[in-house]
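ok, trying the design again with the full structure, not the truncated one.
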């Protein structure tokens, strides 16, 4: 793992550490929900907007990243992204009311949404094709590990000090990184200036509407308001797609779908990410609700799976050019199927079994997500890499959101007539369908390993 990190340039390392720091913020707030509900006297449906608002803001900005990358020099772009995140963090840390935290989280989400595809595009563009698997394996280490350790870090901090320190730590760490990194940041991306299409940007509100409908399905159900939000959002997104096909300089170039191998890689990335997200949802439920561990202990018990994921990501990246994506997906999906089986059959019997299940779920992710991103972008010409990355990161977030709703509905429906341990096991049994779909999707990938030069 560390050998692969050492091969990266100082610029790539700065991007790596900044991305890790900002990525952790994505999953850190769930542990703080009970404290914030008590401190500000808000309900569960309200406090969840700290994550939902962050997710919507992040997904809204992701499709804008190709335009940002092509029209703003990389150094001011990266500085602007980090500055936005720092402003959002400061607002959330210092605010006297709950609305201020939501505003701060929304700004943070916009910054992370701009960073993720930009970060991955720059790494892809500055790495030879035959080394992209290794480089993106390290990126996977950052993305996956940060998502997994977010609840761990927040659990430890909240056990010892105030929730405001959660934001203070990110403020200090990120400020230090961007100051140190100024001399290493390179304007390595070639600019291709184009006019900002305000209509296309406005139509992306449909994406926010779809995420809102997904996030609020459990509360709203199939009522008229839910259907109106969903249908209007889909119409807006369809209008966005049609408009892109008629622009000489599309905001988001959808021609990427014409290249063989891109669509399967995109879908596999989303399915793999769903497994990682589901693991971070299920594990605390098992640890805290079944085995009655404290949030701190629950967070610490998530460390083995996070470490396992971190160690496997670079190894999976190295294997991509040796055995090909298809075999990697078979390995990863098999691990995820086995992980769900372990939880479905033995999840409530022992907390150690839950750790094994989590390691299989998160470890399986390492063999799929970043190798699939690499293979999908390798199928594209260089000028479309930023567009491909933006689409992959956006679809990945939407599929992750859908998976959270699915697991929540499953657990809730079973919990009405079964005790919590049995309901979690039953939900895990149904979730096996997700990696099975991924396994079948891998059949569409080429058997032959295409060596890149």
């Amino acid at each position: 793992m560390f050998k692969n990190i050492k091969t990266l340039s100082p610029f790539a390392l700065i991007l790596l550490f900044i991305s890790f720091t900002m990525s952790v913020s994505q999953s850190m707030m769930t542990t703080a929900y009970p404290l914030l509900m008590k401190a500000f006297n808000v309900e569960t449906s309200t406090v969840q907007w700290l994550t939902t608002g962050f997710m919507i803001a992040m997904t809204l900005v992701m499709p804008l990243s190709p335009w940002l990358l092509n029209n703003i020099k990389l150094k001011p772009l990266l500085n602007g992204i980090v500055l936005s995140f720092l402003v959002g963090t400061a607002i959330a840390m210092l605010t006297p009311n709950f609305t201020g935290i939501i505003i701060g989280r929304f700004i943070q989400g916009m910054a992370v949404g701009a960073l993720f595809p930009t970060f991955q595009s720059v790494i892809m563009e500055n790495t030879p094709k035959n080394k992209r698997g290794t480089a993106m394996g390290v990126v996977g280490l950052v993305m996956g590990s940060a998502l997994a350790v977010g609840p761990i870090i927040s659990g430890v901090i909240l056990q010892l000090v105030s929730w405001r320190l959660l934001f203070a730590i990110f403020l200090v760490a990120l400020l230090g990184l961007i100051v140190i990194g100024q001399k290493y940041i390179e304007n390595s991306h070639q600019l291709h200036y184009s006019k900002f299409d305000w209509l296309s940007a406005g139509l992306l509100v449909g994406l926010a509407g779809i995420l809102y409908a997904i996030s609020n399905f459990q509360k709203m159900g199939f009522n008229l308001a839910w259907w109106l939000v969903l249908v209007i959002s889909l119409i807006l997104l369809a209008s966005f797609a049609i408009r892109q096909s008629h622009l000489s300089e599309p905001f988001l170039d959808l021609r990427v779908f014409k290249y063989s191998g891109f669509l399967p890689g995109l879908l596999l990335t989303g399915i793999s990410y769903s497994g990682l997200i589901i693991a971070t949802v299920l594990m605390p439920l098992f640890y805290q609700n079944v085995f009655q561990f404290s949030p701190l202990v629950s967070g610490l018990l998530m460390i083995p799976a996070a470490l396992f994921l971190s160690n496997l990501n670079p190894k999976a990246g190295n294997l991509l050019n040796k055995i090909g994506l298809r075999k990697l997906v078979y390995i990863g999906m098999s691990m995820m199927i086995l992980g769900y089986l372990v939880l479905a059959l033995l999840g409530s019997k022992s907390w150690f079994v839950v750790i094994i299940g989590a390691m299989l779920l998160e470890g399986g992710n390492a063999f799929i997500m970043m190798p699939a991103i690499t293979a999908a972008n390798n199928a594209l010409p260089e000028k479309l890499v930023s567009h491909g990355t933006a689409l992959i990161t956006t679809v990945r977030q939407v599929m992750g959101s859908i998976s959270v709703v699915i697991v929540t509905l499953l657990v809730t429906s079973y919990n009405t007539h079964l005790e919590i341990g049995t309901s979690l096991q039953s939900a895990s049994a149904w979730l096996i369908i997700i990696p099975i779909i991924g396994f079948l999707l891998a059949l569409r990938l080429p058997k032959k390993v295409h060596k890149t030069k």
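Keeping the full-length input from now on. The chain has two domains: 2-194+249-444, 195-248.
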